[in-house]
Amino acid sequence: MRRIQQSNFKKILFLIFWLLSVQAFCQETLIKNGDTWSYFDQGYLNDNWYKETDFSNWKSGVTPIGYGDRFVTTNINYGKSEEDKDLVKYFIKRINIKNLSKFTGIEFKLQRDDGAVVYVNGKELYRDNMPQGNITAETKSLHVVNTEDEKIFYKKVFDKSIFKEGLNTIAVGVHQYNPYSSDCIFSMEIVGHNDPNILIEVVKNQISNKNSLEAKIDVLNYNFLLKNTTTQLEIYKNTNQNLKFFLAFISLLLLSIIAAFLFFLYRNKKNEEQTKKEIKKINSAALEKEKEMISYSNQLLYHKQHLKEIKADLKFINSDSNKAIQNIIKQIDFIIDNKDEWKELKLHFDAVYDGFYDSLISTYPTLTETELRHCMFIKLHMQTKEIARILNIDPRSVQTARYRIKKKLNLTEDQDLRSFLITV
Fold this sequence. Notes:
By secondary structure, the chain is of the alpha+beta class. The protein contains nine helices and 14 strands.
């Protein structure tokens, strides 16, 4: 009996060794937990980082890699601060597969906290605990990984066609649920199986992926049709609304243009009437001033002519007629001494040139009455001889008077007196 038990024990032991040898023969570990990976922990990379070929400036470490957990082997930088950590950490590893045909399936075992996206040879293979859509540096995981689930390796089986003969690149982006996450963990094992039974898992995974893909396509088609219908409806509504706004705007614009045109016509007509009145008033006033100036000029001519006649009469008077000469001289003195014409001339001149005298006297109070008359004649563009004849002085005296006036007006020799007086 004892021999039988020993024989049975040997058979069982042989069976265990045989099963272990078969199991070892049916699979090959391509990447194991504890292998060295390259990683990037200095901020964010562009969204197509997994397509790059140069990773020479990356750091390297042994898995598990991360921060915030005691069983992490390689600790990495988490970012700017504990409350504002980087959402993504990047990992990459290259493996050389020399005989791909011996495998019937490839098993991925992924340890991630919180979510991860796996890429093989520059293409996305699958994502775990990550949302659908485009993955960027701002994409967060779907859920937070609890403490009791941090050590779990999530399995996924694929057909061997995901790899190629020779050098293959596996890249993994690990995403956090929030920027103040307490920890980050990554590790991966990849096992190549040559057991035919693994094909069942591969087919199941392909069917699952196919069904999932078909469901996504159906959802996308439905969403597309719904969005397209909604978009068309919104376009029609917006077109109708825009048309209403456009018609209202055009109507308002036309009314505004008509109102502005009528207002412009009314204001233009009113301004035109007012302008005509002002012009008529100015012309009337100017005509009156012109009449007064002409009248005064005629008086001056008359007096000058009268003086000429008196002077001519004096030539025919004998020196014995002293009494007659005295009478004539008195008449001449009366005309010369009469100041009324100067007052009238000053009055008319001030009316035409709007306070010329007052402005000149207030600025230059040292000017005499005679010098002011000189200024008036100069402003009227009268020549030196004409001024001398009216004032009954020598032309050289006129030049002297001009010199004195320029001095009192603080004008230099280069400045023209007439040009200055025109501006007053």
